[in-house]
Design brief:
- It is built from five helices and 13 strands.
- The strands form four sheets. Strands 5, 6, 7, 8 and 9 form a five-stranded antiparallel beta sheet that branches.
- A hairpin with a 5-residue loop joins β6 and β7.
- α3 packs across α4.
- It binds flavin-adenine dinucleotide.
Length: 243
């Protein structure tokens, strides 16, 4: 259920969810993805970043036999996004993408999804305007490739010359929870911040899904340390059993 309020107390935190449940804990781990900065603020912590949502759109290749493996472009170090690449899945299907276009809502999985309050929150962050100023040419190209299938096909042709426009079938999009600093820096590393009783995962870009186990271990280590500061001690373990 959606976390709607967080109350910080001397002993820990009380979290209220949209269905009226109240959960109490010594430590709160915030890994709310597209909403992690909002949840940090609910807890009374300044995240120091704003999540600026960037949608990544995909097409599926109608002739998957054209691609036998993974095909990547040389990354541009100026951007945290890799650019359109070709991914062959275990099931043999091939996906082309993702591009990177501004989403008009945090869960803006398509152009028609617009949430004015969320858009205002993005536009009121100085970093958003810095990105627009620095990367407007690249951004305009991405929007063009999003709105024009033939422009997208043209971009794919750099990696797969045999592809034709009719080979591209629309496929579901994802939205990146991109943390942006006030000065417009697009963070490309993981960012975990702590405060008393809280651990906030504020930037977990790709390859955070691939790296989820070590990231989870690191988050757990920090959460345990925070809990121990409140006097909590982990139960003694003997031969794999708690005693
Ligand atoms: C287009 C695209 C391509 C990607 N490709 C790759 C890739 O190839 N390899 C890779 O490793 N990674 C990839 N990623 C990145 C990967 O998806 C993320 O790194 C990963 O999902 C981050 O995990 P997370 O648990 O931090 O956040 P999320 O997976 O976003 O999970 C956040 C959760 O918090 C919940 N939540 C939000 N707000 C609240 C609230 N108020 N109360 C309660 N719950 C809340 C959400 O419902 C969600 O379940 C890609 C991402 C995108 C968008």
């Amino acid at each position: 259920a959606e976390v709607t309020a967080i109350d910080r107390r001397a002993w820990g935190v009380a979290v209220r969810t949209a269905d009226g449940l109240v959960v109490r804990a010594r430590t709160l781990v915030n890994c709310a993805g597209l909403h992690c900065d909002r949840v940090a603020r609910l807890a009374g912590d300044d995240p120091g970043v704003r999540i600026v949502p960037f949608r990544g759109e995909y097409y599926e290749l109608a002739r998957p036999e054209l691609v036998r493996g993974l095909v990547y472009p040389v990354p541009d170090p100026a951007f945290p996004f890799l650019g359109v690449h070709l991914t062959r899945g275990f099931d043999g299907s091939v996906h082309l993408g993702p591009n990177a276009v501004p989403a008009l809502a945090r869960e803006g999985y398509g152009w028609p999804v617009v949430r004015p309050a969320e858009l205002l929150s993005t536009l009121s962050w100085p970093g958003t305007w810095q990105i627009a100023r620095k990367h407007w040419r690249y951004g305009a190209g991405e929007v063009h490739r999003s709105l024009s299938k033939s422009a997208f096909t043209q971009a794919v042709r750099r990696l797969l010359p045999a592809v034709r426009e009719e080979d591209l079938r629309p496929s579901p999009a994802g939205v990146r929870a991109q943390a942006v600093l006030k000065d417009g820096t697009l963070l490309d590393d993981f960012l975990i911040r702590e405060a008393p009783h809280t651990v906030h995962v504020l930037n977990a870009p790709s390859p955070a899904a691939t790296a989820c186990l070590p990231i989870g271990r690191e988050v757990a280590r920090r959460a345990l340390r925070r809990a121990q500061e409140t006097g909590w001690r982990p139960p003694a373990v003997e031969s794999g059993h708690c005693v």
